[in-house]
UniProtKB/TrEMBL annotation, chains A, B:
Coiled coil: none annotated. PANTHER family: S-ADENOSYL-L-METHIONINE-DEPENDENT METHYLTRANSFERASES SUPERFAMILY PROTEIN, TRNA (MNM(5)S(2)U34)-METHYLTRANSFERASE, CHLOROPLASTIC. SUPFAM superfamilies: S-adenosyl-L-methionine-dependent methyltransferases. It comes from Escallonia rubra. This is rRNA methylase. The lineage of its organism: Eukaryota, Viridiplantae, Streptophyta, Embryophyta, Tracheophyta. Pfam families: rRNA_methylase. It comes from the Eukaryota.
Amino acid sequence: MCKNRVWKHVVKEGDSLVDATCGNGNDTLAMVKMVAEKSCRGRVYAMDVQKIALENTFSLLDEELSTDEKELVELFAICHCKMEEVVPTGVPVRLVAFNLGYLPGGDKTLVTTSETTLLALEAAKRILAPQGLISIVVYVGHPGGREEFETVRAFASELPVDNWICCNLQLLNRPLAPVLVFLFKR
Amino acid sequence: MCKNRVWKHVVKEGDSLVDATCGNGNDTLAMVKMVAEKSCRGRVYAMDVQKIALENTFSLLDEELSTDEKELVELFAICHCKMEEVVPTGVPVRLVAFNLGYLPGGDKTLVTTSETTLLALEAAKRILAPQGLISIVVYVGHPGGREEFETVRAFASELPVDNWICCNLQLLNRPLAPVLVFLFKR
């Protein structure tokens, strides 16, 4: 909930957004609702490596979106590290959202990895528009989760302070709860 | 700025608040503005151990507040660990705010310490109303700052998850920037 509030400070109707890990589609749905407007300029590019994730997302969008809204979203069966292959060149992306870890309700052994996550963060950095946001939810409770968080933290800590505001939000009395990381581009 | 937005989600007109470390008075001023209303029920109890801090706060309030608003605030020359001596018993306190470290623009060798900060946090926990907030800004760039943050973090991490939401907000690419810690009581 906190995450979506932050998104609303950044995203405007008509913006182009990337859901780098669409999972069960909840974020994709929220994104389409944020960018949808009369002129149908907004776009959401959503991707996942898992077929079941794309199916769940498709079902959710099919149920919750109007015909016009459905026109605004495209689903891709690719790794988030390849987002530049599906986002048209030159499109200013206002938000790239990541949900790292495993698919909620899915196979917990299928997880994002530090290696592709780092490549995906670098891609997100290249396509993000000024005043854009990279939003990352990092699950730290599964094997490899803590290591992946360290990869994200290292990436964020090296972004220049003149161009980026990088912060993380952690629950101090729930050490295994997901960590939110926000990278705001000036 | 982020901190004040969070406060506004918690504080209502007519509430009683504690500024545990009034410093130059900016937070005290913001607090009075948040609680002030026609019936003059709101109260802000502000304290500091440094005489210069209380003088700066008094000057700022004198300049920025109306006569009615000035009636809502009381300044005390005591340590934050003794807040229970100045807040009337039974008053439900909606917000206790801490700015740990040294007085901005003041003597950097005069700092809050882990020992009294821990006592003050325990006092704040006792007087806080349900749906209240303990807000802590921890400066980590001065000697002892990191240790004080660890004290705050340890305190927060032990609060029961059923009754408290404890989170911290850190700038990842500015490791010496102050850390925000919010302890929300359910």
